[in-house]
């Protein structure tokens, strides 16, 4: 019986493929990066074929590194970024680039739908907040601004659908990716008629929705030899990266959340039924027919720390090169050696607008409370605290909807800094656990694949894969400081909203 499986994660900046054994241990891995193209200020696109090539390359390379025979691989299961959109013609040839979640070209449409109330009504059925990331509003933009492409389009699909189209010559979409389009009714598990009417399309323009455990065989022969697999190797459609990050972090039971901070960030909780928020603050996406992921993403995670390093850390970068260490190691020393609360300095971390819980692309960043007592170390720690305040803002909205959360599983690049994890723990006022496995979407995809192939009876049966971990307890003295500062943070965001709107308007017209 095959003892190995492959998890593939099609991310925003790279694709990863990992060979796991049935205990969840990594046997081999491969990754390949690809660029984001921005030929206009609000546009963010990628080349679908560059991503397709990355998927093929990483699968092939991780198999070669593992030195496994094709018959030793039980299945290949997929995770993928959400909210991507590609218009393709009847031959499956792209008419557009892969328009990704960070694309803001449709902001005018989301503002209109927020103002007229149609946005919140569509959200309540689909679980996708009213935001330019949503493919629903991207299709509206194409309809009105690129009518030739809109009319020629045979289908509007995501990047994962594009990969499976090229592998199997079929248009299928899993419930999870579909539930992030703004056009899929999560209560009925079918395309939403009113959302499609608003976009000006019908179901024929979209792929066939199927469960996340949906399995396909019959990989094209030329790809079998190229990848090192057989026509009989099952390919599991899988789910979105956010949902699978929860699964791959062991945050699948009630009362448990997953917190991810990488380039961006997110807080998510598994729930046994679909729920939506009357204020539209959080999303609700499908994992399986009886597991839904409720949460919210933030735009501004580790990307802000990198921005700070690149623009204000020239001295630390130079010194790190001389010492032969990572520049973040030196910046982290500032964080470790600065008092909690950064001497009353607060950072609003909205350099790229914000998604949850505000869903406002016009938010902007700011340092508040600056005095002559503040040094570079205070600014460094304030940035990390600001990102964590943002995460806690989402955490509070999630708890308002699903109830109390007693434990948070953390993953993402930020877990390499113990103090950053502890700051999040203190601000969230909740115990945090970090597993040694950093590849939660790929592992989550494999766990879903095991459910699909009948190797486990339910997702909770995979808890044996999580052995090595470190627990972080709330530091009570810091908790009290952060409770006060978080209140100031919330008041500052609300109070600065009109200012941010005016500044954003000025910036966009420069």
UniProtKB/TrEMBL annotation:
GO biological process: carbohydrate metabolic process
Residue span(s) of domain Carbohydrate kinase FGGY C-terminal: 257-451
Keyword Kinase tagged: yes
UniProt keyword list: Kinase, Transferase
Any GO molecular function: phosphotransferase activity, alcohol group as acceptor
Keyword Metal-binding among UniProt keywords: no
UniProt feature coiled coil, ranges: none
Ranges of residues in domain Carbohydrate kinase FGGY N-terminal: 4-248
PANTHER family in the record: GLUCONOKINASE (PTHR43095:SF2), SUGAR KINASE (PTHR43095)
Entry's family note: Belongs to the FGGY kinase family.
Protein name: Gluconate kinase (FGGY family)
